Protein: Glutamate-1-semialdehyde 2,1-aminomutase
Amino acid sequence: MSRSEILFNSAQKHIPGGVNSPVRAFRSVGGTPLFFKHAEGAYVIDEDDKRYVDYVGSWGPMILGHSHPEVLDAVRRQLEHGLSYGAPTAMETEMAERVCSLVPSMEMVRMVSSGTEATMSALRLARGYTGRDSIIKFEGCYHGHSDSLLVKAGSGALTQGVPSSAGVPADFARHTLTLPFNDLAAVEATLAEVGQQVACIIVEPVAGNMNCVPPAPGFLEGLRAQCDKHGVVLIFDEVMTGFRVALGGAQAHYGVTPDLSTFGKIVGGGMPVGCFGGKRAIMECIAPLGPVYQAGTLSGNPLAMAAGLTTLKLISRPGFHDELSDYTRTMLEGLRERAKAAGIPFVTTQVGGMFGLYFSEAEAISTFEDVMASDVERFRKFFHLMLEGGVYLAPSAFEAGFTSIVHGETELRLTLDAAERAFARLK
Ligand code: PLP
Structure:
């Protein structure tokens, strides 16, 4: 038995499913999850001392690669001064200034401890600001696990959403309308009917939780126009795309300005951090300035601010995001060439340092249905063959992949060699 198998067996005694977040359990790909004990640069190292080129990057934060020396030093320096004060620090102001300067739509920002908290708080704020209860989200988008957001479309989308998790009250879910991603006509029709009840539209500007689906041309612009028309708050959930697809996030990449944005992952540099912010007039509704309550014992935690600020400084150097994007493009081109040579239908998507892989005959991937039509069984086999070849992909056909700035020539060769062997065995 491998060490990972032994550890997974013991983990299941006291941790539900042996994991602290479901996707880690490898249920979508089968087999035993790898237990890691170390990570450096572009690699994760498992308990059996096997090294893998990492395309998960802790689900997005590790854009600089693992254990970046400057990030670790910043955390070590802060460590000498204590772990948490529950009182304001100079670093929080520095962080707020940096986030607001990198993302101009952010006039004010509040730090929290996860992406879930960021989106949950942004929704409450939008509801408090507008005095409306309903929200619109899109099928296949994930915004964390708060009650309002674990909802799928009911039989008539215009009427009511239904919970997608046990424990979410139906009374709550009915305020969430779920529409098809990239379908502006559905948004127009819904707002024409119930626009006066809708507090906000929340969207992943690049959908990264149903693999990786870029917005159709005009979709984000259309959302902006519809929100303006109906007095609805537009929220970009940039927990995944923020500081990754461009320094200024997807809103900079696509040139569409939301009212509120949520961030996580990179903004904490690998520590538990999220934040939300946007228009001053909306943000001023938050306590202690306004009536919308929101708080957190560890919000703005000094260690987390040290890791996040250093990460944001390092990724702000000119050319950083172009390099990240270039590696990603070259790697995906290499994968497509090898799949083609092996006669395997294979499609990729990419926005900057974020990508999707599909075993599919489709020309392009732009809807939830396109994603669902891909060959998940083939992905499962590919995933395990790549693992055997020393490459760690996201253990699900419905998650985006991430590259880091330290993925280079060596990792490219390792990845493409492993893929060539994997494609040959998939035939
Ligand atoms: N929003 C998006 C777009 C995400 O991808 C995620 C997590 O992957 C979240 C929100 C929730 O963030 P967290 O897992 O930090 O709670």
In short: The mean pLDDT is 96. The radius of gyration is 21 Å. Residues 320-341 form the longest helix (22 residues). The chain has 14 helices and 16 strands.
